[in-house]
Predict the structure.
Amino acid sequence: GTLVSRNEELVDGFATTGHYGSICVNKGGIVELENTSVILEASGSEVRVQSGGKYRMKGGILYTKYNGYSYNYTGTEAGGEMSLTGVEVKMSLKNAGSMELVACDIHSSISNSGTLTLVGSKVNAQTVTLNSGSTATITNTTGIGKLIINKGCNVTIQGNDFSGTTLVLNNTPEGEIIDLSGNYWGTTDIELIKGKIQGYDEARVLINTVLSEPNAQVFTFDSSMLGAHRVSDTAESLVLTFNAAVDAETVSENSIRL
């Protein structure tokens, strides 16, 4: 079924041993929350989205208390979908399905083994790990403490403020290119930027351009979206970079409002 809540608080204040106030979204289940905080204070509580389930949250706070065991986590299983927009996230997230984080204030680590979209968010000196074989789009995001990219990842990384970020590239295989062009590093000196990337390999890391300002907004349009306004017959994509505020609520597949 479907659970819809607006302008409410879902709070479980019990912290006793053996009390697990959790939300589990099973196949076919849909949770839609708007300006609704979910605060689960018992150790071992979680918000888990299983295959075929959908959890959508806009505004509010999302908090569950981790008990230290790997089987206890908030996020998605394979085939599950979680979408958070404008949410203050106060616990670690694991994603094996599809996770979208837009304009979020994130105070916890993120581990991705599925498809992750991280856009316009603030990650407060936390670690984002992209596990082998995962897919990730990270754009217009600030504050990542450490970004770990393991081998076999399919990544799009543009328009981010990496001035305080350490990047770690683990076991990047021959022939695999990690494109880190179009990000802000706090410097335009390529040699200094290379020093911030652990595992840097000239043949496998591409940095064609760097942003001179931290608040640039980057959007990529593929050839099917360019239509009659294509740059050329051979252009497959067009990248637009804006040093201006972008109204995130108006961004769609083919329009942007400044």
Observations:
- The helical segments are 190-194, 223-226.
- Residues 190-194 form the longest helix (5 residues).
- The chain has a mean pLDDT of 82.
- Residues 163 and 186 are 4 Å apart (CA to CA).
